[in-house]
């Protein structure tokens, strides 16, 4: 179970999106903001990474090896908790676990001794950049173009997104081969 209580800062502002769409009034701001969020979600799914750093929390089963976190690139682990069968929770000392981050940003947490824990709750942070201005411009341009595509297709047009969007995002794409949980 992967949860991010905060959606993170939008890599494209409402004003940027409104300007790209050539909308002069703010009457459609809620619609445009929703389209930017959708385009950002599509981008993150395509590249396999969160864009702006935000908090995440996962509950995972301890295994014989490290447990793999679902979001990437992992920036830091803030806390690890052992969850007992009866529902009790114990914070593990920082020296009781180790974070290993692969070249692709995948985080794995190795627990030295999970004790009688049936689950682990891991609070961590993941994302490519600390803020929207640090997101590569090609990714931001792809989000603007995807926002435009979604805006244009809102009346039921079934056209595929322009190939230029995938070309803009491709250099940052990280594909996982599964497993590891």
How is this structure best described in words?
With 181 residues, the chain is an alpha+beta fold. The chain folds into two domains: 2-50 and 130-172, Orthogonal Bundle (Hypothetical protein yqbg), CATH 1.10.3230; 57-126, no CATH class. 27% of the residues lie in helices and 23% in strands. It contains four helices and eight strands; from the N terminus they run βααβββββββαα. It has a five-stranded antiparallel beta sheet with strand order 1-2-8-4-5, with no helix packed on it. It has a three-stranded antiparallel beta sheet with strand order 3-7-6, with no helix packed on it. Strand 4 (74-83) and strand 5 (89-91) form a beta hairpin. Helix 2 (29-47) crosses helix 3. The mean pLDDT is 88.
